[in-house]
Structures are given as structure tokens and as C-alpha cells.
Design goal:
Elements lengths: L2 H6 L6 H5 L4 H6 L3 E5 L3 E3 L11 H13 L5 E5 L5 E5 L1 H6 L4 E6 L4 H12 L7 H17 L6 H9 L3 H15 L2
Parallel strand pairs: 2-4, 3-5
Antiparallel strand pairs: 1-5, 3-4
Helix pairs in contact: 6-7, 7-9, 8-9
């Protein structure tokens, strides 16, 4: 499959939606993007997505070799020092870089969980079990913030997925928690 053909199948959350900025150049000019050594980057405790070797990963590696990292990761400071990766786990683990460009954000656990889900749920080859767990994490985070009343509707509008499907994924994740 050609790279162009593969890219036609990828649906992405917009950069503005994920990072709240107008474009990466403005963010870089404002000093929001920082190069952090990989040794200071640690896993987010609530990260539920696996890093897989597949065609999508190979395309990302090739793109980084050709153009560099175009979309910075998202991290937050840890009390123990260093940073916790909210979005960008794959970039850290497979690209062979010494540093990684990141946005450093102040996020509580619920906000970090929602950003983690939003930055990964759009992947083309996401497993149903990963999607179920991700939707449950986001739903629980929204509920903790007092947004449970219309959270399924909001999640549906953001993802383009039917709210009943999202509800079923959440129930699937809850069933899986019993085992």
C-alpha cells in the first residue's frame, strides 16, 4: 500500500483540539515546546495503549526520519522529578532519539487521562479492548469533573462515533474489570 493511500485512511483529531494552540510555530515561538532528554520522560500510570509494530508505525518512523518530529508529545511534571508522558509514548520508544519535543502542561489526573484518550483513540488500528478501556477512562474522568450528565453525547460529538456504541464499549470495559 502506498504511503498516500495509507494516509487517506487515517483520521486524526485536529492539532488545535489536542493542544489548544493555533499552530506549532506559534507554540514554538512562545516557548511552549521544549526538548526533553528521554531519560527524564516516564510512563503515564493510566496509559492503556500498546505500542505495536505495524505498517502505521513504519510510516511514522519513516516520516520522522524524513521530516523530524512534527507533533510534539504532551507531558506533565512529576513530583519525583522528570516528566510523565501523557501523549507521545510511541515516539519515545521507537524513534531512537536522545530528546523529544514536548508540550509541558499542568494537568490533573482526570485532565491527563482525557488528553491521553483523545490523542490515541483516533489511531487506525486500535483494538476494541483498548477502545473500550479508553472510553471508560475518559467517561470516569469526565464524571469526576462533574460532566457525567452529557458525557456520552460530548464523547460522541468529539469522536464522531455513535453514543450508543461508546456506551457499549464502556460496558465492555466494566465487564472486563470483573475478571
Amino acid at each position: 500500500m502506498s504511503r498516500t493511500k495509507a494516509l487517506e485512511n487515517v483520521k486524526l483529531t485536529s492539532f488545535d483540539d489536542l493542544f489548544g494552540g493555533k499552530n506549532i510555530e506559534k507554540a514554538a515561538e512562545a516557548g511552549d515546546v521544549k526538548e526533553i532528554p528521554l531519560s527524564e520522560l516516564h510512563e503515564f500510570h493510566n496509559h492503556q495503549f500498546q505500542i505495536r509494530s505495524d505498517e502505521e508505525l513504519e510510516e511514522m518512523i519513516e516520516s520522522v526520519r524524513e521530516h523530524g518530529v512534527l507533533v510534539p508529545g504532551i507531558v506533565r511534571k512529576r513530583e519525583q522529578g522528570g516528566y510523565e508522558i501523557i501523549a507521545g509514548h510511541t515516539r519515545k520508544h521507537v524513534l531512537g532519539l536522545e530528546t523529544m519535543p514536548v508540550f509541558v502542561k499542568e494537568l490533573n489526573d482526570d485532565e491527563a487521562s482525557m488528553v491521553m484518550v483523545d490523542s490515541n483513540i483516533q489511531r487506525e488500528n486500535i483494538r476494541p479492548s483498548e477502545k473500550a478501556k479508553a472510553y471508560k477512562i475518559k467517561y470516569d474522568a469526565m464524571k469526576n469533573q462533574g460532566k457525567a450528565g452529557n458525557s456520552l453525547k460530548m464523547m460522541s460529538e468529539e469522536s464522531g462515533e455513535n453514543y450508543k456504541s461508546i456506551q457499549r464499549y464502556i460496558w465492555l470495559a466494566r465487564l472486563n474489570d470483573w475478571h
